[in-house]
C-alpha cells in the first residue's frame, strides 16, 4: 500500500518535468525571409510535434528544430525518406522535398510514437510559374493549423486517479 502511495506521489511530482527546459522562442534561429523553409518543433508538454501537420510544395525545405528538451526526440518518416537520426535533446535537421516528391509523408518520434507523437507533411507539386501578365504575389502556400491535445498530462492524471481508486478499494 505504501508503494502505491509513493508511486502516486512520484507521478504527480514528475508530471511538470515533461516540458521544455528552454523556451522555443529563445532557441529558434533567425529566419531568412527569402527561404522556403517550414520549421517543425516539439511541444514536450503534450509530446507532440508543432505543428503536427504541414503542407509544403516541391522544392521547399522542412526543418526539424528543438533545443533543451527534457526528453530526447527524433523525426523518422515511415518509409525511410528522411530520418533526423537518433533521439536527441537538441536537433537541427532539414530535409528538402525535390521535384517529383509530391505526396503525403507520415513521420514519428520513435521513442514516443506509442504516445501519439506523430506528424504529417503534405507535399504539393511545385507551383507553375504564372503567365507573364500575372504578379508573383499571387502564389500562396497553405499550412494546416496544429490541433494538439494535452494527451500526456490527461493520461498521467487518469493513471493517478485509477491507482488511488485501486488502493482505496484494496484497503476497504
Describe this structure as you would to a colleague.
- The protein is an alpha/beta fold and 172 residues long.
- The chain has a domain at 34-129 and 139-148: Sandwich (Immunoglobulin-like).
- Helix content is 22%, strand content 24%.
- It is built from 3 helices and 8 strands.
- It has helices at 2-14, 24-27, 151-171; strands spanning 37-43, 48-50, 53-57, 61-66, 76-77, 91-96, 103-108, 118-124.
- The strands form 2 sheets. The chain has a 4-stranded mixed β-sheet, with no helix packed on it. The protein has a 4-stranded mixed β-sheet with strand order 3-8-7-5, with no helix packed on it.
- A hairpin with a 4-residue loop joins strand 1 and strand 2 (48-50).
- Helix 1 packs antiparallel against helix 3 (151-171).
- The longest helix is centred in the last third of the chain and has 21 residues, at 151-171.
- The chain starts with a helix and ends with a helix.
- Mean pLDDT is 77; it is low at 20-33 and 139-147.
